[in-house]
Q: What sequence folds into this?
């Protein structure tokens, strides 16, 4: 291929990033790809903004990209679902390759779109959909292709990580930290997608699919967000040597495939515990390599453009073979996972409570790794007749933990809802 | 390509790792590559060891691999220089693709071998030569191909990092830590290549070449090892909030390309500071992505095999386009780099010494970031008439620092050799 002609759809931060990166680094991109990559047409539903379009033709009509015979590949940078989905369908019909950063679309409609593209031997690149500029899909698909992956654990939503970092460093409560994230532009006015784990679940769907060769299946991902995490849990966890992070986790073992996003206590010594602010990081455990980790900016116009241009270069190099997503692996119900747990039990401050709790855990075969009965601190709710009992358990089946928690919750001395957060197992990274 | 037929040369830990990985993960490898990858012939100069060679024919004569028409690609896992170099030359003549983990060969002879292979449109894969199983060359060559790289900084020699970690954690001196590394099999009986930076310089030569598109040029790499690092420097650095790591660093700026390996003080908060033991980690700074980092096992049979099999899969997928290594960029002399410095100045314990030192630094325009005059500790040399003056400077041209150090060394009150270690600049990762 001597020339790759790009139709760019969308001129927000990502679209502008793609334009400027292709211009700024044109020489090295052509050297590395062996091909001139040129944006020949740009479409945006809003009026043409003040950006240098070079020789590209501008339209406000998206279909112009699809109808332009000179366009080889469409870069979709409009986001959202409906318009993008319809663009994908018509682009595939028109035999255009597609590159996108649209995680929701790939996670929720990939099962339809990817085979459509493959049937016409078209390339569909979505490196930018997961972990921004970190080339994590390339690592899974190619670099580690000789490995059987057993686990992926990642911080893949920068907004949640920013909020948890702020809560941890400044002692802010959730609402204050969310407000700060919104003021800084890291969180949307309606932050639901980020803070309830939907965005992370989209990204995890895609990683799980490539790591295990299974069809995209967003609906089976277990989701918990960070809005229930309290400042006191972060403090107690810290006292015990943990940080609370929002993780996307997939594991594959004899019981099946577990794909889930939820908050977790991560031991201080683990690299993931030290990933702060809006950074993303993904840890992969695989049979040949062992534990490896990939870290970088998970969002932003230029980091996202970096991945889109990487996909364009793959297309130019002819590195377009898709991994078949055809394996059928049973999905585990969240009740069947095994995990250690952090419990915060609000209990009347009198002798015997801890014994009752320990007795129930013991009956369920749950060992206690650490326990502390906390004094109220200055900022805690000033009720003096109860204390939070903090327990870290050993590994146990979640189903068993649920049964034990029901019993503990019913104890007369337990005066409020028990907080329960999973604890990541120790690892070398 | 339906079938890729491998001739494996060498049955040490790496060769055995490749054999077992190709067998164990045959199904997913063929799924991801779209091709059956089969070892058809194995050569090893020693007698056939007790490993399952499946259907492969065994020879003790290496040339049998080259002369076997059924072999498409030779995996070189014998290491060393002479035999490997001769194998590469004859393999290229016989139109065989080559995959290797041999960093010395690629760094020192790549400038001859790579164009030879390209002239015959043969693939030469050497992902395994750098950072073991971390697919760092793929990241530089493809994932970040849209970026202009400005800096690479990595912990790329596990032996040195193990020794520095042991010195830091147990307070061992260099010799004790080296002995421990040797006892555990992390260091060779003759550890020169690892501890004097030669191995790291080989790997850095290769990374610099791919990142900047320049020919491999091992001879121009500036090299300092870790044998001069003392336990007290590690302690003083720690007190000031730094760890001492052995880094491979390339930087590209208007003054040219600097490629160097040396010990450096890394601020505690940086991810690189927390990479312990035999782990490898590489940080890349580039224009679009920003700072990103890649971490994992840097050595061992299976991690190395992971990268070799990754290269085999690239070959099977047809992802074989080499980045041209043709750019001419001036190499900076080490005297022209800019860095902050840690200085340990053994000086007579009397008033006025610090003033003299500060005066010389000031005359040279060097600002002081931190200074402490240390008491001797229990394990230090028990001479009571001198103290180590510890200084961290601001950024300055190394040439200027050298001039200042010459003057300071000549002061009558300075009673021994000044230790000087570069300090890594702060960064987001």
A:
């Amino acid at each position: 291929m001597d020339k790759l002609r790009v139709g760019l759809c969308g001129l927000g931060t990502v679209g502008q990033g793609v334009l400027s990166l292709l211009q700024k680094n044109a020489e090295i991109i052509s050297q590395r790809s062996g091909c001139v990559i040129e944006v020949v047409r740009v479409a945006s539903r809003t009026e043409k903004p003040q950006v240098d379009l070079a020789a590209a033709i501008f339209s406000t009509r998206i279909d112009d990209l699809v109808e332009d015979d000179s366009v080889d590949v469409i870069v979709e940078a409009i986001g959202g679902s409906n318009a993008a989905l319809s663009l994908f369908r018509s682009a595939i019909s028109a035999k255009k390759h597609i590159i996108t950063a649209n995680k929701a679309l790939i996670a929720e409609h990939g099962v339809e779109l990817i085979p459509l593209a493959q049937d016409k031997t078209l390339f569909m690149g979505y490196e930018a959909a997961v972990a921004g500029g970190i080339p994590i899909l390339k690592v899974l698909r190619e670099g580690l292709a000789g490995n059987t992956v057993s686990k992926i654990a990642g911080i893949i939503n920068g907004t949640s990580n920013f909020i948890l970092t702020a809560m941890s460093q400044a002692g802010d409560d959730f609402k204050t930290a969310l407000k700060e994230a919104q003021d800084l532009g890291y969180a949307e006015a309606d932050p639901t997608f980020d803070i309830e784990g939907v965005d992370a679940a989209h990204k995890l769907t895609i990683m799980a699919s490539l790591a295990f060769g299974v069809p995209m299946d967003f609906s089976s991902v277990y989701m918990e967000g960070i809005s229930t995490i309290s400042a006191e849990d972060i403090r107690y966890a810290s006292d015990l040597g943990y940080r609370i992070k929002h993780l996307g986790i997939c594991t594959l073992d004899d019981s099946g495939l577990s794909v889930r996003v939820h908050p977790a206590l991560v031991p201080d010594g683990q690299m993931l515990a030290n990933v702060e602010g809006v950074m993303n990081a993904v840890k992969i455990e695989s049979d040949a390599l062992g534990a490896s980790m990939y870290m970088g900016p998970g969002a932003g116009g230029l980091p996202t453009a970096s991945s889109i241009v990487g996909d364009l270069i793959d297309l130019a190099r002819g590195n377009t073979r898709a991994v078949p997503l055809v394996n059928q692996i049973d999905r585990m119900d969240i009740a069947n996972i095994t995990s250690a747990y952090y419990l915060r039990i609000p209990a009347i401050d009198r002798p015997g409570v801890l014994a009752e709790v320990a007795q129930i855990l013991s009956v369920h075969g749950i060992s206690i790794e650490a326990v502390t009965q906390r004094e109220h601190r200055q900022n805690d709710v000033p009720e003096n007749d109860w204390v939070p009992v903090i327990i870290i358990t050993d590994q146990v089946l979640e189903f068993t933990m649920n049964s034990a928690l029901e019993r503990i919750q019913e104890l007369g001395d337990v005066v409020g809802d028990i907080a329960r957060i999973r604890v990541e197992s120790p690892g070398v990274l």
